[in-house]
Design a protein that fits this description.
Number of strands: 7
CATH topology: Rossmann fold
Mean pLDDT: 93
Family: Belongs to the LOG family.
CATH class: Alpha Beta
Structural class: alpha/beta
Helix content: 40-55%
EC number: 3.2.2.n1
Keywords: Cytokinin biosynthesis, Hydrolase
Largest sheet: 7 strands, parallel
Number of domains: 1
Order of helices and strands: EHEHEEHEHEHEH
GO molecular function, one term: hydrolase activity, hydrolyzing N-glycosyl compounds
Organism: Thermoflavimicrobium dichotomicum
Length: 190
């Protein structure tokens, strides 16, 4: 693993553990010489994880669409910054640069980003690990929904395992190193 893309809230949320684990994850990435790829902001959980990587002498790559430059505060200390035209180009660039993906808690943007990469994994567009940082059960409702969709025949059961859901950042990264993409399954039953 050379680079991991982190999707995270542009706010910090109400639980202080979100900030604590975001900083811990950033420190661990830097200490393990794993570069951070993320949305390029200095605010919210996004900014906290980037600051932690930089504080521990790691490398941080930001990718932000020009349309968000006014609304989000661009981090001024990044190792490298890509300005792209739009959200689709942003996600394509993040995918191109990354060896895996982790979602910290977040809102609609974080959900959309993690669902796009899991859809790409499901379709075989990539075979990279996808993690959910399940701080205080934040992603339990999502995992319940995924298990239900598999039980109801909408997701192959092996593909319900595309998400690696852990509450401890060290354990999550250990599972990334052991990751094997599920065998291709017939996505269409008819």
């Amino acid at each position: 693993m050379k680079r991991i893309c982190i999707f995270a809230g542009s706010n910090t949320g109400n639980n202080p553990k979100y900030k604590e684990i975001a900083a811990q994850l950033g420190e661990i990435l830097a200490n393990q010489d794993i570069e951070l790829v993320y949305g390029g902001s200095s605010v919210g959980l996004m900014g906290i994880v980037a600051d932690a990587v930089l504080r521990n002498h790691g490398k941080v790559i930001g990718v932000m669409p020009s349309g968000l430059l006014r609304g989000e505060i661009v981090h001024q200390s990044l190792t490298h910054f890509y300005q792209v035209k739009g959200m689709h180009e942003r996600k394509a660039k993040m995918n191109e640069l990354s060896d895996g993906f982790i979602a910290l808690p977040g809102g609609y943007g974080t959900f959309e980003e993690i669902f796009e990469v899991v859809s790409w994994g499901h379709l075989g567009i990539h075979k990279k690990p996808i993690g959910l940082m399940n701080i205080d059960g934040f992603y339990e409702p999502l995992m319940t929904m995924v298990r239900n969709a598999a039980e109801e025949g909408f997701i192959p059961k092996t593909h319900a395992e595309l998400f690696i859901c852990e509450s401890d950042p060290v354990q999550l990264l250990n599972r990334f190193r052991e990751y094997e993409h599920p065998k291709d399954a017939n996505k269409w039953r008819e």
